Amino acid sequence: MSKVLVITTSLRSRSNSDILGERLIRGAEDAGNQVEHISLKDKKIGFCIGCLSCQKTQKCVLKDDAVEIAEKVKNADVLVFVTPIYYYEMSGQLKTLLDRLNPLYPSDYKFRKVYMLTTAAEDEGFVPEKAESGLQGWVDCFGKAEFAGLLFCGGIDAPGAASGNENALKKAYEFGMNI
């Protein structure tokens, strides 16, 4: 059994990525994992100010919700980031969070596998490439971790449309089962 942390990053209520994230969570739980879910809705996460104090102290000088999230990331075995694709890239709130996880770089973090689930209105295979590359760049900074997989669910455009997309729901569940 792995300790899985799923972080959903859409700020829209009942977003498509949230709907598929819920299905992924169900799959991961059904596979016997202990799953914790954090939504960035209603979280206050400021931009990294680049002071690099965290590299000495392993603590951020900014005091907001990113501090608690970083502690949960540090102690998870598996990370799953769920994001809508905006302008062919991960959401800005996910990128901001990744930057704020800088205190983990010199720490004794536990996570070894990192996954990503993305949604977008567009359905072409290239759509998630930049988001995947951005997360891969973050993972590359953590030598004990690996980017273990991506699920892209494209062609889901209207708000809430994922709830009626049986194919995407099935894929998200199976993705969660195989984490």
Can you walk me through this structure?
- This protein is α/β, with parallel strands linked by helices and 179 residues long.
- It has one domain: 3-Layer(aba) Sandwich (Rossmann fold), CATH 3.40.50.
- The chain is 35% helix and 19% strand.
- It has 6 helices and 5 strands; from the N terminus they run E-H-E-H-H-E-H-E-H-E-H.
- It has a 5-stranded parallel sheet with strand order 2-1-3-4-5, sandwiched between helices.
- Helix 4 links the parallel strand 3 (78-84) and strand 4.
- Helix 1 packs across helix 6.
Please report the total strand number as a whole number.
5
Helix segment tally: 6
**Gap from first CA to last CA:** 10 Å
Could you name the CATH topology? Rossmann fold
- Strands side by side in the biggest sheet: 2-1-3-4-5
The number of distinct structural domains comes to 1
Features:
5 strands, globular, 5-stranded parallel beta sheet, Rossmann fold, 179 residues, alpha/beta, single chain, 35% helix
Quick structural gist:
This protein has 179 residues and is of the alpha/beta class. It has six helices and five strands, in the order E-H-E-H-H-E-H-E-H-E-H. It has a five-stranded parallel sheet, sandwiched between helices.
